[in-house]
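Re-run requested by the PI after the first attempt was lost when the workstation crashed. Everything re-entered from the original request form. Ligand of interest: magnesium ion.
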Amino acid sequence: MRLSEALTGQTVIITKVIGHGSFRKRLNEMGFIKGKPVFVVKNAPLKDPVEYRVLGYNISLRRSEASMIGVVTEEEAKTFETLPPLRVEADRGGAHQKIRNTGNVITIALVGNPNCGKTSLFNLASGSKEHVGNYSGVTVDAKKASFRYKGYVINLIDLPGTYSITAYTPEEKYVRKFILEEAPDIIINVVDSSNLERNLYLTTQLIDMNKNVILALNMYDELEKSGAQLKKDFLSKMLGIPMVPTVSIHGRGLPELFDRVIDVYEGVDPFVRHIHINYGEEIEASVARLRIMLRQHRPVTDTVSSRYTALRLLEKDPEPDYLLRNYTEVENIKLVAAEEIQRLEKLLVEDTTSLITGYRYGFISGALKETFKSGKNQSSITTDHIDTFLTHKYLGIPSFLLFLFLSFYCTFELGAYPTDWINNGVHLLSVFMQSHMQEGMFRDLLVDGIINGVGSVLAFVPNILILFFFISFMEDTGYMARAAFIMDKIMHGFGLHGRSFIPMVMGFGCNVPAIMATRTLRNKKDRILTMLIIPFMSCSARLPVYLLLISAFFPSHRALFLTGLYLLGIFIAVLMAQVFNKTLFRTKESPFVMELPPYRMPTLKNTLIHMWDKAKQYLKKIGGVILLAVVIVWALGYFPTHSVVLDHFDQQITQLKTQKAILSYPVNAKQGRSIAGNGNVAKESSSQSTVNATNNLQKQNLSQVQIDEKIDQLTGKRQSERLQNSYLGQIGRFVQPVMRPLGFDWKMTVCLLAALPAKEIIVSTMGVLYQSDKDTNSLGVRIKRDVYQSGPKVGQPVFTPLVAFSFLIFVLIYFPCIGVIMSIARESGSVWWAVFVIFYTTALAWIASLAVYQIGSFLIH
Ligand code: GDP
Ligand code: MG
């Protein structure tokens, strides 16, 4: 919190004063010093200046000045005591001092290239469980954690990985904005020590920004293993940046790292020195000229070094207005910058952007030449070995397919066991509830709606867990980057990105996690395009419907039809991708480098955490939206509960039940007698009368079993009747005219509507709707026997093979399910994409089924 946000009458404690030289000095002289309490005397909204009391004096500050003072409230200061300690140190049993004074809050940002181990460091230090992946683009926003270390409160922030701090990608913009606006006290620049040259580029930009930087020489284990030698103290002195070797997956070096943080924060680290990278005489001259100008128009409360701003302007920063947002005379400054750029480019015959980049790399290679002797770089040698095989021209794709097949095989084969357990458990639970709860609406809701609905979704969790395990493993080892690389060419042919492949394949399991997996696509256009076509991947919820209808209508060509439907889905997806590329996403964004990180063996723990992360999102969805949807559809199919016909059924059923009770009574009575002993006259006589009743029933030739059957039949008929008259049935009939040209009757329409929460619901709804008098249990047979009860086609079967095929096509293409729609809304960041998917998939399904049915009918006649 900033002092400007403190309210009248509040006492807050100063944690830091942000800002530059003279401004900061002035504030310090006024008494605004770290650790001192400030009382807010008067602070009305919009009132400027604000009055404060510090060290016994009343002082007024401008609001903009007060916003440069970081503070904590007294309550916040108290909660600091409850924070966990630095994890690594705790593991070693280190003792902790109590927080000495509340001014000691250090905000640290982790900055570095993708895959250099920032998140691992963040997790290990704070004990949190953010996802670690050997795959860039995983950390999308900032994660924050707080802990205590040696009497200090440390706020650690994990930022997205970037190769530089310009403003060309969303990650870069984010990181820059964070550093400039949030002004962290310390930046820990995490670098991959086995790849110093590339990683230090970012460091040069931090040097220009003149921030408090500490270098974590991470992956030091790999540097040591490769036999390379680094004179780190020498390098440290040259750059003016303290450096600490770390191995963030094991926690090595972390206490030392945070010790250095404290030293730098307290201003006692001997290595800290602000250096200037030399950009050559001419560029430096331009920088100097710009700096004079910038200093004149610079706001007192600025946090950015003018050297940095000048350099960025000369580098043609894409957001100069952001850079100069606090300055006056912005246009003049931009004019001077443009003049200088022109002068430099004419003089040096090169683009200033590449000139400056060249100087930075020159600086790095110079620094490394004196301090670094490369070894044989173990990991990249093994990486090369593995890659000659795995990304081989001919072997690459087969080995990838083999790996995929293995993942899917395990997903479905191993997953089948726990899925069975869940299904059995859900069944037991619903039977238990059925028999232990009072009959009524609440029981129906719980059993038919919630338990069965959620159960059917829950049944996919084991499959999803296993699939995610493999995917996490592929990501963490670095294989995923290769898979994208291998598939890139083929996918490009379809106008898709190589990385779209994995989400699309995942779609065969379940579209919901597949939509979430599009996160690995960096480009927004590619992400949305992939989300739009994932619904055509036949997910496992569609499989039961396919199986039911294919077995009933095309028994001799089962495998052919099943494969055909899957392929048709892929075909439509590819087709739509082309269409969208030519319509919605015409502007092509520039291609970006597909980097291939070295292979790394992930720890099992990391992979499990990652897997769980993904599964958690799926489970959350069950808890929320899917549950709600299940209940709504259930209610639409359940109400109204009373009608003349229904009541008639109820009467018949009750009658049969009493008859059954009477039939079974003598048995009970006998038992009762044997327990109660003889002499119970009342029981004797009542038992006598039931015997008579039983005889009557037996005269009607109705045994107990037959009564049960009759009850079942009636209950089934009643259910079917109820569904017909329910709101859902009414909607179905209402919509039916639209579906008639596709060959669908109202029952099919109702099934399609009921399946909005999840497509497997089609099967269970059919089970309810297609009740047959004939004694057959097979749903397929019952569907086949269904005939039109009225209308021009009366007496003809409803379902012909053609209708079944048209229906299957519709099921494949239309509205995926509520979970997918919600995921698209969330992942695309716009409800409109979700709405778009609802309409375009359904419209497409309608057109496809219409074509199939109409052309088919024409051919048959
Ligand atoms: P981030 O992208 O910077 O957040 O990097 P991550 O923390 O996600 O780590 C990327 C990969 O490097 C993961 O596979 C980690 O297990 C691995 N890794 C992280 N730190 C180290 C380290 O110090 N040594 C080694 N050998 N591997 C590491
Ligand atoms: Mg990360």
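Saved to the shared folder this time. Confidence is low (pLDDT under 50) at residues 90-101, 133-139, 672-685.
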